[in-house]
Amino acid sequence: MTNSIRHSASYLQQITRKLFAASGAPDDIASTVAEILVNANLAGHDSHGVQFAPMYLDRIEDGHIDNKAYPEIVRESANTLHVDGKGGFGHSMSRRAMEWAIERARRSAVCCVTFQNTTHIGRVGEYAEQAARAGCITLITLGGASAAGSQVVPFGGARGALGTNPIAVGIPTGDDAPFVIDFATSVIAGGKILVAQSKGLDVPEGVMVDSQGNPTTSPDDFRQGGFLLPFGGHKGYALSLFFSLMGGLAGEFNAELTSMAGLFMQVYDVAAFTPLEGYQSNVRSVLNAMKAVPPAPGFEEVLVPGDFEHRSRVQRLAEGIDVPADTFAKIESWADKLNVSLAEED
Question: Is the four-CA dihedral 195, 197, 198, 203 of positive or negative sign?
Fold first, then answer.
């Protein structure tokens, strides 16, 4: 098993920001992306955390991410925005787009956002939490379907034709643990296979197949042409395909590849429908009622969405974040290349 190195969240955010800034990203973009990556680690979702920093630096070097680009609203109406990400960091684009959507929802009750020219946006639940903290409900879908192939097999299929196609939902609770749903429509996200591989672990059964469609638990098989399975069989497949079609609202369709994909955000201002404070209190009451249900045999307690992330954040802020040694070695390699000091600053 690969060893891990424990670092504080502040240190990881500091060095990640310095690496992106050294690559040419403006300070505000570098800071935003570093913060969102470390937030994923703090939330317990290492699959979307600092392990992606070396890969993003590779993509900047290869010209696949414009690290200087700022998003722009290119079309709008009273309740809609269409945002051009301009090939920049998906993280800073998504945070800014959510800020715009929250502002618009506060004026018009609801705002829906479509996108073009986007790159990887990281943990989708980050932006659901952002909306919930602002007193809004949000639904975010990210989907892709293509006859040319992709990571996830459709139900009954022998090869991949769908992305991992996640959904995130955020609902305000008036406290530090908003109700947050954030999951891929594959059994697990592709990033979790990379985490397992970095730790020298197998993945559970029923998660993936190899390039020939045979069940496997080896992460190496995924890197060698294997595919993920949709969760819940035909139900997860149906949701995955639905999110792909929602992404098509951006108006982009590749006829040659029969491909439809895209990011879609919906934001609702709670105060436009009912008083926010009372709603949040009622939501927390319902969640507490769920948690008060006696646990079944084999369970210690009943949890609600958002509990895991909140507890992980409290623990990791206090104890630090474990980063696989090979991931940190890649960070060190990029630091040498960009002449960035990894010494901790005050």
Answer: positive
